Amino acid sequence: MAYCNPCNRTFPHWEAYNQHIQNSPAHRSYEVHECQLCDRDFYSEQSRHQHYSSSHRSRYCVDCKRVFMNENNLMQHLHSRTHVGASIQCPWCKVGFATASGVTIHLESGTCTASGLNRQKINHMVHKLDRNNVITRPMITLPGYANVETIATERAWNGQAYECYLCTRQFTSLNGLNNHIKSPVHEQNLYRCPNLSCRREYKLLSGLVQHVESESCGVMRFGMVQSQARSGIQNMVGRMIAG
Fold it and tell me: What Pfam families does the record point to (predicted)?
């Protein structure tokens, strides 16, 4: 049931109300609310909201009244802290995260001193678990796992900036260049989707976890990934390997 306050009229459904608003001369001076996804106009925010809710649910968050560019962006929003909170805790420092990929990024970054983990140690752990290379690519040596640290010096200065010897990218500071060298940008892809019809590759475990969370390949449901991650990163990885 919809009600037009200025006209003191009641309508059996929102479609009839919208038609009244659009066709009645009494409402011509009202502000026009344009649908961002089709060519329809509405003379109230509530009418447009009802339109989005009924016709564009694949790209519209009803609770937040937000329109997204595509269904995947909406899905990421629905899986964000805004809707799911921070229900997954780091097992070591107890910081809360919205998703399994979030806590994986946290551990890969090496900033969780309580865990002592970083991306190299996580890569090594996963490679040992994945003996049949279900989610990892067979490699003689793991990327960046050797106890050798590559550090750029002042000799990287080319007269204008500090230049990476691998990709010639330039940085304004030596620290910026060294952060670039320490990142996985020049490493080989270690991880791959376990779905044989997909097999997309990633440098980081967090990249693979984000891919699985998207449900684009049907490897695991988003909720299952989060459930497994609450029991620990090894448990989540074991579930992906087991299929």
Answer: zf-met
